[in-house]
Design goal:
heterodimer; A: alpha/beta; eight-stranded mixed sheet; five-stranded mixed sheet; about 35% helix; B: mainly beta; eleven-stranded mixed sheet; five-stranded antiparallel sheet; 27 strands; elongated
Chain lengths: ~600, ~350
């Protein structure tokens, strides 16, 4: 991404995201030195020809602003029309469910893992990861390639100057699979193997060579691979989808995968907030999780966990007890399954009753929880390298391969997706994220309420300064702060005392027992909180140690979550636990009263 | 009646057997190919603890010879007249004997791939090495979900009305090879009996997820289907649960009772969706144009969400309102057939007539 490049001559940007279900367009304009979103248009994505839905969304902006954005049923810019309102037209897309890749590396936990990170960072859905040591026989790997028919293949393996025979074996597998269409293959492995890889694959694949993504074990170099993946994505995936040939002519920049653009926006947030953070984008078909820990940005895609066409799969992977623990009423597996199957067929269905809404939010909690589990296993220290073994460090080892996701150090969670933008009560969005991720200590919660994450990420690649400005004004809606002590005790015993002081100096003090869940509303603006846990509990400074912070109050204020950490292990099916859930929801006034169905 | 055009392609290059102008039926073989066998390397020298250059002394099969699974490919004599054997793990051909590495590679037999026409019609274009384009004067109906691959047979409408459920008693021996049409749903017993008898396909309005899972023997997570190894193909036209087939669809299928029908249960519910197909070789004048989707006062709609799933009524009011869930959206006041009025989101209805 550009380092705060300012494009002084650019004053207005029309930015579109063509999602799998909805196309969202925003118009960003500069007045003086300020960049703002001035208008927005939304329309269903038209998969037969994506430009139809796009034009419908842009027309809404034209009608609300009177600005000249369309001519002869096409989006125009000042590049072609002097009277056009937009200098640039930028687009992101989740076309065809995204860029679907397979990756291969020598060793599953080293080069193959790095290859997977490269593909995910470029916005791809990784269908499978093949390695020499993955336990499958050669013919099984070959059949897998044939069955999955990826859009693209990333082959890596061997540090420069190292192993050649292993990566040649992998190349032979791709050759033996003999995909019907010429498959784009990117080789990002041992440079000494290039000639032999070319000899094996030249008649089978469209082969591209890039710098080794793991030239030495201690280093990952993913950018050249990501650039090449994007280039091939444009050529082989976008160019073939209905309407995208037209769209590519209208845009003033290359079309980006939505996931990559959202990742760019999360990187903006991380740079501006300067905190360890988790971001999540939950969509119709998949859930992206982004994290910044120890200054390392990581993205994973859970390709089969979404709230539309993938929603039944969430039930299947989470299992019924884990869904039921979020529902204060009984529902049979059969009834739930049929409902979710129909949502799978018709993702645009809206929840009508309070129960429908609770079901949708329960599915969101489980989709996010599962996606985070997958993410944690990817956000690890580089494996295969040696670490210092001084005595002092032995007791503070984050061993190679251990997850870097630290829920106590986590400072900010950002949620993006229709489930958040459409939640009738902000506290619902906040509790979805808190229940799904179960942050520890003190954590701020925000959402991309306007759904501008992919747009800002795309804008950042053109005018990073403009993107940061818009982010600061409209990017995030702060919901509030969750205070979640770690430790255990008897339900009902004192857990912590919290004092909140607003800007006028007025104080509010509350004591919360273990097992409790309390919302403490705050005045607008910044407030000071002082939290003192009792001896068994830790908020990040050690057991019983107090913390004092100034925090933005957010829409929901502070939520003290003293339910304990380890909710994931509690499968709730009993009437007693359902009653407890009813009490929690009632305490927070989380949902409207459910009227009988 | 439409002119349906079908592009039929082999998954790998092969040999096309038809030419432009040829008449075809669903079972006509258009093209054939062979999927290459997969290699299985066997490190004989390591297993026998001999040097690689000694490999040929122990082999009983040579390059190019065919072998069966379990057949001895190498033998090493040991003490007291005993011998150790290495057997082939697969049926195939000895592809390579390498005295540098001591590895014998056996390649499995090629797998034949046959491409049929799937529909009745004529070849309008032959694609060398790939397949052909078939045009078929037929009626196309799309379902919403299906399982199972391509099948063809005579269409038999068994249910008297679109609300009827297809039960075991409806399935008789005479339906072997047919594509049967039910009403609202099908029971597990009916599915199992139909599979045993040799029915080629079942089309109905809906199915319970538990019945589908019990019949398949597994739970489909992500809806990408069509590859299931099933004796019959199942297509639902409306949704999951008990939901009457749309009256217009049922009436059209009833009109085409007895016609040659090709079905495919292949479903991809993702961005570039693929829907299951029912292609009937019928040349009548009944309208098959897509339903007008415009919604206005008086439009008859079907509700596709709970708590009124499947109910049909006419729109009496269109407003912007909050639902019980507190979501604010465009809502419809719908007068149901039995007289009650309900409020539903616009997003949750489909035009019915």
């Amino acid at each position: 991404m550009n380092n705060l490049l300012t494009q002084d001559h650019l004053k207005s940007f029309l930015i579109a995201d063509c999602g799998t279900g909805t196309t969202t367009v925003i118009l960003v304009e500069r007045t003086g030195t300020d960049h703002r979103i001035v208008a927005r248009g939304v329309a269903p994505t038209t998969t037969g020809d994506v430009t139809l839905g796009l034009i419908a969304a842009v027309r809404q902006i034209e009608e609300s602003t009177g600005k000249h954005l369309l001519e002869d049923d096409r989006v125009i810019t000042r590049r072609d029309y002097a009277t056009a309102a937009a200098d640039e037209f930028i687009c992101t897309s989740s076309v065809g469910g995204g860029l679907q890749m397979m990756v291969a590396g020598l060793v599953g936990m080293m080069t193959a893992e790095s290859a997977e990170r490269a593909a995910l960072g470029a916005g791809a859905v990784v269908l499978d990861v093949i390695s020499i040591d993955d336990g499958r026989l050669p013919h099984q790997k070959i059949q897998r390639i044939r069955d999955l028919r990826p859009d693209m293949f990333l082959l890596s393996g061997g540090t420069d100057g190292g192993n050649i025979s292993g990566v040649l074996q992998l190349a032979e597998l791709i050759k033996a699979a003999k995909p019907h269409n010429i498959l784009p293959v990117i080789f990002a492995g041992n440079r000494d193997a290039r000639d032999q890889v070319a000899a094996i694959l030249s008649n089978t694949a469209e082969l591209h060579m890039v710098d080794n993504l793991r030239p030495v074990l201690e280093e990952e170099v993913l950018v050249p691979t990501g650039v090449k993946i994007h280039e091939q994505f444009m050529k082989h995936v976008v160019a073939l989808a209905p309407g995208y040939d037209k769209l590519a002519q209208w845009t003033t920049r290359d079309i980006l995968p939505t996931s990559a653009a959202v990742g760019d926006m999360i990187e903006i947030a991380a740079r501006e907030e300067r905190k360890p953070l988790l971001g999540v984008n939950i969509g119709n078909e998949m859930t992206d999780v982004f994290s910044v820990f120890e200054e390392r940005f990581t993205r994973t895609v859970s390709g089969d966990l979404g709230l539309g066409s993938s929603i039944y799969n969430v039930l299947r992977e989470a299992t019924l007890p884990n869904v039921l623990r979020w529902l204060p009423f009984e529902i049979s597996l059969d009834e739930l399954a049929n409902r979710l199957r129909n949502k799978m067929l018709r993702p645009s269905l809206l929840p009508v009753t309070a129960r429908d809404l609770m079901i949708e939010h329960a599915m969101a909690r489980e989709a996010l929880r599962l996606a985070l589990e997958e993410h944690k296993s990817s956000v690890v220290g580089l494996r295969g390298i040696r670490r210092p073994t001084e005595i002092a460090k032995i007791f503070d080892q984050t061993g190679s391969g251990d997850t870097l996701v630290n829920l106590m150090k986590l400072d900010l969670i950002i949620g993006s997706g229709a489930v958040f933008t459409s939640a009738p009560r902000p506290l619902q969005s906040m509790m979805i994220l808190v229940d799904a991720f179960q942050p520890q200590g003190v954590t701020h919660i925000a959402i991309d309420h306007s759904y501008v994450a992919p747009h800002l990420g795309a804008l950042a690649n053109v005018d990073a300064y403009a993107a940061v400005q818009v982010y600061k004004q409209s990017g995030l809606t702060y919901l509030g702060t969750v205070v979640a002590p770690v430790g255990s005790g008897k339900v009902g015993e004192p857990c912590l005392t919290i004092e909140i002081k607003n800007s006028a100096g007025e104080k509010l003090s509350k004591s919360v027992s273990f097992g409790g869940l309390e919302q403490v509303p705050c005045d607008e603006g910044t407030v000071s909180i002082s939290v003192k846990p009792t001896a068994p509990f830790d908020l990040g400074r050690g057991r019983g140690k107090a913390i004092r912070l100034d925090i933005p109050s957010g829409l929901c204020g502070v939520v003290v979550d003293a339910r304990g950490r380890g909710l994931s292990e509690t499968a709730i099916e009993s009437p007693a636990c359902r009653q407890l859930l009813t009490e929690w929801y009632s305490l927070l006034d989380l949902y409207p009263e459910s009227k009988g169905e | 009646m439409d002119m349906i055009s079908k592009l039929r392609r082999l998954p790998i290059p092969g040999r096309v057997l038809v030419k432009r102008g040829d008449a075809v039926t669903p079972d006509t073989e258009l093209a054939i190919a062979e999927v290459p066998g997969y290699p299985v390397p066997i490190n004989v020298s390591t297993l026998f603890e001999i040097e690689p250059h000694e490999l040929t002394r122990v082999l009983v099969k040579s390059t190019g010879e065919q072998v069966s699974r379990g057949e001895v490919i190498a033998r090493k004599k040991s003490f007291f007249g005993l011998s150790e054997n290495i057997k082939s793990p697969i049926n195939g051909t000895v592809d390579e004997v390498c005295e540098l590495t001591g590895v014998v590679t056996i390649v499995s037999h090629p797998i034949p791939v046959n491409l049929t026409a799937f529909v009745a019609g004529h070849v309008v274009k032959s694609l060398e090495g790939e397949g052909a384009v078939i045009e078929s004067p037929a009626t196309l109906i799309e379902g919403v979900f299906g399982v199972g691959g391509e099948k063809s047979g005579t269409l038999k409408v068994l249910s008297a009305s679109p609300e009827d459920m297809l039960t075991e008693a409806d399935i008789t021996v005479g339906l072997k090879g047919c594509i049967v049409v039910g009403g609202s749903s099908v029971t597990l017993e009916a599915l199992n009996k139909a599979a045993r008898i040799g029915v080629h396909g079942i089309i109905c309005g809906g199915i319970d997820n538990k019945v589908l899972t019990a019949y398949l023997g597994f739970d489909i997570g992500i809806p990408i289907t069509g590859q299931e190894s099933m004796p019959l193909t199942l297509i639902i036209t409306e949704g999951f649960g008990h939901i009457a087939m749309r009256e217009k669809t049922f009436a059209l299928l009833s009109t085409m009772n007895g016609c040659l029908t090709s079905i495919s249960g292949k479903t991809h519910i993702r961005a570039q969706s693929v829907k299951p197909e029912i292609i009937v070789a019928y040349q009548g004048d009944e309208a098959t144009a897509p339903l007008d989707t415009e919604i206005a006062l008086g439009t008859v709609v079907r509700i596709m969400s709970h708590p009124h799933f499947g109910d049909i009524g006419s729109i009496v009011e269109i407003t912007q309102n909050g639902l019980q869930s507190e979501i604010i959206t465009t809502t419809l006041r719908v007068a149901l057939k039995e007289g009650t009025e309900v409020t539903v989101p616009l997003a949750n209805v489909e035009r019915y007539a």
